[in-house]
Amino acid sequence: MKLQLLRRGVQILVILGILAVPALTRYNNYLASRELDRQMERWEGTLPGATLEVIDAAMRGLPGGEMERAGSWQRDRDRVLARAAVLRGGAWSAEIAGVSMTDPLAVVESVAAARQLPWVLIVGAIIPVLATLMLGRVFCSWICPMGLLLEGVDKLRRLAHLLEIRPRNQRASRRIKYGLLGTGLVVAAVLSAPVLGYIYPPAILSRELHDAALTVFDRAEIGRFGVSLAGFSFMMIPIGLIALVELTVSRRWWCRYVCPGGALYSLLGWARPVRVRLASEQCTACAACVPACPMGLNPMKNAMGAECDNCGVCISTCNDDALSYGIESPLADLLARRGTGGTT
Fold first, then answer.
1. What pLDDT is attached to residue 23?
2. Chain segment 327-342, per-residue pLDDT in tens
3. Is 122 part of any domain?
4. Among 123, 125, 119, 87, which Cα is nearest to 105's?
5. Which end of the chain has the least Cβ crowding within 10 Å, N or C?
6. Domain containing 287: what range?
């Protein structure tokens, strides 16, 4: 349970980070134009005003955020301006304290479209690729903003079962996502333009949240402070459709069968050393971990493969302490999968 609370906390921090980028941008703009204090006074008691006040308090509370001048402590404007620029981007591509991180899917698609690999992409890919090589598809279960949304849909499916409503659970081939990944890269190469970034849900959701946060400040500047969906575009429709299909037709179908980003992460992380391990001597074959696995795998048979995203739900579900994270050769997992005929 503690593991899942930690994972949920990371997911929420990612969402808050995506929302914080446009808020920090506006804070920086207002401070640079010497309008910050006036805006906070004008918007007192509103969401944009409270957001600016929280950011300002955090910036001033950091060491060196204030300086003594004329007998009082005042904001160190230059230092705060520099600090407000430490976070940029979203789940598709981000820069944190000068460290660049780019989704590997964005990297390979850019390479396919431009037929060259600039240093900026190499540098941005280092941390995500190394993390995937060591941990597998952890982006999908720990970082991806769509993951939090679709896990919420999964809980609604369980609620439907309690209400004696039986959503369907249509299965498909996991090879579909690899076909979509290859097709997207070929199209990008032919058109010399990236296409997957416009249909990749984590990138879409990151952009939509960014624009929605900016709209809060745009509306405030013209005196509108009510709740509005004006910041969201028609691109939220496919996000909603994915959630609807998962709720009614197929559990976690996007992540299991369709997501091209998930396909790339699976390919990169197939030989990951850190994986879920089964202590067979402790397993009582209760099978509680099998329906719990969001990816439809079989932890009880130690048949996880490259599709496992190391979410740890099976570990939290196992009452026998038979499942845990550990270091293991991919060969053992491959043999286990062959012995059980694989998973769907």
1. 94
2. 976 665 556 555 555 4
3. yes
4. 125
5. N
6. 274-344
Residue partners of 25: CB distance under 8 A and separation at least 6: 214
Q: HEC profile for the chain?
A: CHHHHHHHHHHHHHHHHHHHHHHHHHHHHHHHCCCHHHHHHHCCCCHHHHHHHHHHHHHHHCCCCEEEECCEEEECHHHHHHHCCCEEECCCEEEECCEEEECHHHHHHHHHHHCCCCHHHHHHHHHHHHHHHHHCCHHHHHHCHHHHHHHHHHHHHHHHHHCCCCCCCCCCCCHHHHHHHHHHHHHHHHHCCCCHHHCCHHHHHHHHHHHHHHHHHHHHHCCCCCCCCCCCCCCHHHHHHHHHHHHHCCCCHHHHHHCHHHHHHHHHCCCCCEEEEECCCCCCCCCCHHHHCCCCCEHHHCECHHHCCCCCHHHHHCCCCCEEEEECCHHHHHHHHHHHCCCC
Q: Residues 235-264: what's their mean pLDDT?
A: 94
Q: Tell me whether residue 144 is exposed, middle or buried, using C-beta atoms within 10 angstroms of its C-beta: 0 to 12, 13 to 18, 19 or more.
A: buried
Looking up residue 326, the CATH number of its domain turns out to be 3.30.70
Q: CA 296 from chain center: how many Å? A: 20
Q: Percent of the chain having pLDDT more than 70?
A: 95
Q: What would the mean pLDDT of 198-213 be, rounded to a whole number?
A: 91
Q: Name residue, tokens 């903003």.
A: 145
Take residue 189 and report the two structure tokens written for it.
């190469």
- β-pair partners for 133: none
pLDDT, tens digit, 9 for 90 and up, residues 8-32? 999 999 999 999 999 999 999 999 9
